[in-house]
Structures are given as C-alpha cells and as structure tokens.
Design a protein that fits this description.
about 350 residues, Rossmann fold, Alpha-Beta Plaits, 2 domains, 6-stranded mixed β-sheet, 10 helices, elongated
Amino acid sequence: MLPAIVKWRRGAGEVRELMKILVVEDDAVSRFMTVKALEQLGFGCTATSDGQEAWERLSTTRYDLVISDWMMPHVDGIELCRRIRAEEHRGYTYFVILTALAEREFRLTGMRAGADDYLAKPLDREELLLRLIAAERVTRLHRKLEDQALELERLNREFFESGRKDPLTGVANRRRMQEDLAAFELALRDAPRGVDGHALSVALFDIDHFKRYNDTYLHTSGDEVLRRVASVLSRHIGDHEGFYRYGGEEFLAVIRAPHTLAIAKADLMRRDVESCAIPHEANPDTRFITISAGVAPIDASGEVSFLEAIRAADEALLRAKREGRNRIVAAAFDAPPAAGTVRH
C-alpha cells in the first residue's frame, strides 16, 4: 500500500495539494477493490475494517477524505459521519458514502447525516475519480479558509496585545494593568485566608531626578533609560505577578508575597538598577541612575482595594523622595529596614 499522503498529478509538471484519505469497509474484498482503485488513480490511503476502528484513527489523525461503507457492525457509515460532523471544530472532512443501497431515500438519509456525496457498489473507477476531484476542491477551500481564520486570529491577538503594551518600554501599559488588577482582586477574594502564597503587595517605582536627566542628556537618552530600567525591573517579576508602566518615569509592580518580603524584593529591584551604574551627572547623590519606591499591601479582607493600596504606595513614594531618594518606603506598616535603605 502507498503512503497515506500522495501527490496527484494534473498535467505536465503540475501537482495538486496533498490529500489524506481514509477507507472504511468491513468487507475484505470490497476494501481491497477500493484501495486498489485509489492506487490506480495515483492515490494512497489508510484502510480500516469497521467504523469503530476508523473513529479511533480519526480521534488522533486528521483526514481530508473518508470513503466509508454504509452497512457495518458496531459503528455504521451514517453514525461515523454524524460523529465526524459533530467534531468539525477540528477541521472539515469530506465524507463519501459507499453503498449498494441506490434508492433515493437512502441517498437522502446519508446526505442529511452530513455526507457530501455517495458512490454506488460495485465501484466504478471514473465515478470515484469524480468524487476525488470534488473532494480535493472542497478540502482545499476549507484549508484555505482555516488558514485565513488562523491568520485573522493571530492578527486580532497581536492587535489586542499591542493595545495593552507600552510602545516605548515593551512592558504592559495602564489598560492592561486595570484588567489585571480586576483579576487579581477576584482571585484574592476567593483565596484562603492567612495563606502566604496568596498575599499581594503593590510597589510604585520612580526614577530619581529623571527630569534633570532629560534636561542634561536629552529625551532620546531618557527613552533609553526608561527601556533599560523597565527591563531590569521586569526580570524580577514572576509568572503570577504583574509589572506595568504607570506613567512617565513611574512603574508599578504587583508582587505575590507577604508585605515584609515584598519590601525586600522591591529593595532588591532598586539595588539591581543601581548596580547598572548608568551615568547621571545631574543626580547630586550618586551620579548614577537610581530609583525610589513605595510599597503597600493588599488587604485580603477586601477592606483595602488595589486603588487604595496604590494611593498608599504613592504616598510612601513621596516620602522616599523627601527623605533623600534611592530607597524603599513601606506604607503605614512596621517593617525592618533593608540594608539601611528602607524607611517608614
């Protein structure tokens, strides 16, 4: 038997698209004759001895064309066709009923079950070729439509994602933040109380003396600093956390950790930016790019919303700027300083 996928030559040098064929026939002689006729026409196929075996193959392998006998034990051709039509989300399969029942009522029954065409026994090779030509055209059209649908889905997904990404830094924007915060709040309400793995905090970061940087190095260099800082900070964010450009030179992180650990993580992020040693001669404190942040916890009881936590983090950030910058300040909670840089 030839391989299941073959090339169909139309004329000099022209090759049709590949078509995968499944033959379903319980009678050994009829099955042999159908396979032989396909081979003589230049097609290969896979052959099965009953509808159940065919259905098992179809559950793991997609076929473009099924040529099935009507009368078979266990699963007959009509039932097999109905099952295939019920699974059309997996792709369209052209279905041809092969039967000795030539009366009109039987043909209508097959068509109503979802069959595309029928072939009468004994099999006529020219009639078979006509069905193959029709099957090739229809399956090629369905493949094209499926490809177009996939491409449209991809473009829609890209459009959706691009509308939720900051074009300068490549991190999520405020629109994405609003969507994610709603999901975070919903998950937090459903989470078991007192479980650290569900604790959340927000950290609001700000690049110190960024206006002075732009005035000194111009905005194109400022854009590069924003990209660099966003990249450094975002690599600390886990799969179930969030990181967003909040606005201007500010970034917001949702950290999945108890408050004291979130403060420590925010300070690690601050130190990571400082260690990059990006020159900033207009920064009177270090002569390098540094950041400050305010950190606030999310109340799992629902009494403190994300919006209120962000406001608290913003107030803590203002305190960090007043106290000298390049530090982390926790919002209204007692927590030990991290390496002398955390203030309350």
